[in-house]
Amino acid sequence: MAASTTRINLADPVSVDEVFFQAEDELVRVTPTFKHDEVEFISGRFGPFKPNVPVEIPLWFAVTLRKRQQCKIHPPEWMNYDHLKEVYAEEQRDTRTFVDLPFHYIEIASSIFKVASEDVEDLHHVRPALEDVQNIRMDKIRQGLDNVAKMVSEDELVTNINFTNISAMEIYIIRPFLTKALNEFYRFGQKPTDSAIRRSIATRRRYSDALSSSSAHPASTPRPAADPGVGAAAAAEDGPVVSTRKLR
């Protein structure tokens, strides 16, 4: 699968139920135990259904049939134990990017575990292996966010964060932190506007002129006026404001 970059829309919050709902349109392979003609849904046509003849259908339909004992669900190839071990090893080797897994891999696996755990070969190995993959990916996300915090502490401007091959549920988990953190990063890291800089220069010139004209009377030297409109990065010249917070 080709690598993909996800842009997170922080202004469009979703619930965990919505994340699972979106995943239910993903196709999975099943072997039905009944006979039926082709069926049509909004997402397309599926079937016909014949006993012991595998067919691809949406996840939500597969879950429904499995609950009625009318099919067997075939877990996707990426849920194979050996493959998950390879994914974990690759995640360990490359600490800067993520292995390309299906966008809804967590939701798909969770749904299959819930209704068709007996259909998963080596379940007692697959489940913990998948959890290991999830955990190492979350550790890498935390490290990435720590790096962003470090950039801000060094006065580097952060306007957006791109994640390569991050999944839907991983986005959902980190969204609350990103919303707050990026607001802080922007507030402390933004650069002053041209007009703010001009006002600051004018204020400093007035103070310099006043200082020169009153050099003989230092006691009457006026204090500089505040520079209205200057961003935190320009106003706090004594040192950058650092705001870091580690993801739970």
How would you characterize this protein structure?
The chain has 248 residues and is mainly alpha-helical. It has three domains: 62 residues, Ribosomal Protein L9, domain 1; 133 residues, Methane Monooxygenase Hydroxylase, Chain G, domain 1; 37 residues, no CATH class. It contains eight helices and seven strands. The strands form three sheets. It has a three-stranded antiparallel sheet with strand order 5-2-6. Strands 1-7 form a two-stranded antiparallel ribbon. Strand 3 and strand 4 form a beta hairpin. Helix 3 runs parallel beside helix 5 and helix 5 packs parallel to helix 6. The two termini are 30 Å apart. This is DNA replication complex GINS protein PSF2.
How would you briefly describe this protein structure?
With 248 residues, this protein is mainly alpha-helical. It folds into 3 domains: 13-74, Ribosomal Protein L9, domain 1 (3-Layer(aba) Sandwich); 77-191 and 231-248, Up-down Bundle (Methane Monooxygenase Hydroxylase, Chain G, domain 1); 194-230, no CATH class.
Structural class: mainly alpha
Low-pLDDT segments: 218-248
Strand content: 5-15%
Total number of strands: 7
Total number of domains: 3
Helix and strand element order = EHEEEEHEHHHEHHH
Spatial sequence of strands, sheet with the most strands = 5-2-6
Name of the CATH first level of the largest domain: Mainly Alpha
Helix content: 40-55%
Largest sheet: 3 strands, antiparallel
Overall shape: it is elongated
What is the level-2 CATH architecture name of the largest domain?
Up-down Bundle
Q: Helix count, per DSSP?
A: 8
Q: How far is it from the N-terminal to the C-terminal residue, by CA?
A: 30 Å
Question: Can you tell me the CATH topology of the largest domain?
Answer: Methane Monooxygenase Hydroxylase, Chain G, domain 1
Average pLDDT, rounded to a whole number, is: 79
Instruction: Supply Rg.
Output: 28 Å
